[in-house]
Amino acid sequence: MENTKIIAYARVSTEKQELARQLDALEKHGYDKLIQEKYTGIKKDREGLNQLLDIVRTGDTVVVESISRLGRNTIDILTIIERLDKAGINFVSLKENIDSSTPTGKAMLGMIAVISQLERDLIAQRTKEGLQAVKARGVKLGRPSVDSDKVKTALKMHDSGEYSVKEILATVGISQGKLYKEIKKRKEKQLQQTSHEK
User: Fold this and answer.
1) Catalytic residue numbers?
2) pTM
3) Domain 6-101 indexed as CATH 3.90.180.10
């Protein structure tokens, strides 16, 4: 197809990380345009990714050094790849040797899609089970007055090691910041008690 472009995308997840390794690999592959960003996960918007999705057109190719650069989890990554695929845009990942324009690449993306759907189903199932378990303990959900109960339940779920942070937040209904704040507060309290006992 005429006038198609190869657009390279590079991302690191902290300000301290460097893009050099990704840029070297992408330059070796070759591209017409490069988009790079440092995304910490604190920002709600990913300007670089949004720019990429805005400028790519049918027939273009998006190339990344590693598939993990597209997002922070399987579902996020697959959602982006599905969006590219539906728009008729090829996807290339150098590290995993994936090229969606080839039969092998399409098959690999198909496998990722199956795994991602399984992950979605498992999260939904565990969230449902978590809600049932919480309700069975007599904790009422969704009301500000039970905020302390929510925190206790969230900490219990966290301590069990059976739930991811995402599942705890979806089940109990508190923010990620609140959960981490309470974990830190409890840890500090335990350290104070230990120092007093010495």
Assistant:
1) 13
2) 0.58
3) no
